[in-house]
Specification:
With 326 residues, the chain is of the alpha/beta class. It contains 8 helices and 17 strands. The protein has one domain: 4-Layer Sandwich (Purple Acid Phosphatase, chain A, domain 2).
Length: 326
């Protein structure tokens, strides 16, 4: 079976017992309820976009698509919702490679079939590649993923993995800024993996802050994607709260967090939105309710303010297909 299979089975057996399913937003620093709507003037440009969590194309998701000969099946339950938006930001938790393996049992090595690409484009995704699985097939797999996305006109954002120089020194590289302009409104995207090194160090916050200060003047909205925190925790840790407050202080507008695979609270800090963890969007973790149920958000914004926020609960069915919960 190997070490990956043993580890996965162990996690599957014990993780549900350690998941705290619900967390009151009041535990954070005075978060505001996300239910307000602002008035839109007649000549005001508006953009609508979606935020969702981890999008895994590996294991059961690719297996189901191949079995059904339908690579849009995993998206079908939410396609109508997705295509109403101008774009949808998600975390791509698997490289997309040629000859992706068909052996998906007991593995933590993920890959997605390139036949998913038309669905990713049709559903208007912008994908963060800054996570701990994107290099599962090494630099070659990462390069293939970027090439496939570029060839299909699918926007993505990433940062190089951190270089661990020693036990006490790490070099935190800058993120690659991705720009998108819609209806005259400029969006900038930055993404960082704070999981792969196994720790967060002071240089991480400095490097991210410097990027934000550098790029915020170029855009109306700067959205920062963070792959971070401990899996299956229902609330962020103090270091995460402190870090994102610092990032907003220097110019970040929206924080989109992922990696815990469960939903964590949403906070409003200085009128900026922090999604600590958006949970799973498409993922094969049906061993618990917390990893099978999640939320997707639609934000409607003008050039300088959030006009409306809408939360939609979803449930992942057949271990591979999100559908809107009624």
């Amino acid at each position: 079976m190997g070490k990956y299979g043993t580890w996965l089975i162990a996690v599957s057996m014990v993780a549900p017992f350690f998941i705290i399913l619900f967390q009151n937003r009041a535990d954070l620093n005075s978060p505001q309820v996300l239910s307000s709507t602002s008035t839109i003037s007649n000549n005001e440009s508006v953009v609508s976009f979606g935020l969702m969590g981890d999008l895994g194309l590996g294991r059961n998701i690719t297996a189901q698509a191949r079995l059904k000969k339908d690579f849009n099946w995993s998206f079908g339950g939410v396609t109508e919702w997705l295509t109403q938006n101008d774009f949808n930001l998600s975390n791509l938790e698997s490289p997309i490679i040629k000859d992706c393996s068909t052996d998906f049992k007991n593995t933590m090595i993920f890959c997605g079939d390139p036949q998913f690409l038309p669905s990713l484009k049709y559903n208007k995704f912008i994908l963060s590649l800054a996570n701990n699985h994107i290099f599962n097939y090494g630099q070659n797999g990462f390069t293939q993923t970027k090439d496939y996305l570029s060839q299909n006109d699918i926007n993505f954002v990433y940062s190089d993995p951190p270089v661990i120089a020693s036990d006490s020194v790490a070099i935190s590289p800058n993120s690659i800024l991705t720009l998108k302009q819609i209806n005259g409104i400029k969006f900038g995207f930055l993404a960082y993996d704070l999981v792969i090194s196994g720790r967060v160090i002071a240089s991480d916050s400095v490097a991210i802050s410097n990027d934000i200060k550098k790029y915020k003047p170029e855009v109306d909205w700067l959205i920062v994607s963070l792959h971070w925190g401990n899996e299956y925790l229902s609330k962020p840790e103090k270091w995460q709260i402190d870090l994102v407050h610092q990032l907003i202080d220097v110019g970040a507008d929206i924080i989109a967090g992922h990696h815990p695979h469960v939903v964590q609270p949403v906070e409003t800090y200085k009128n900026k939105l922090i999604f600590y963890s958006l949970g799973n969007f498409i993922f094969d973790q049906n061993w618990s309710q917390a990893t099978s149920e999640s939320e997707i958000y639609r934000l409607k914004v003008s050039k300088d303010k959030i006009l409306n926020i809408d939360k939609t609960p979803i449930i992942i069915k057949s271990n591979s297909r999100p559908e809107i919960r009624k």
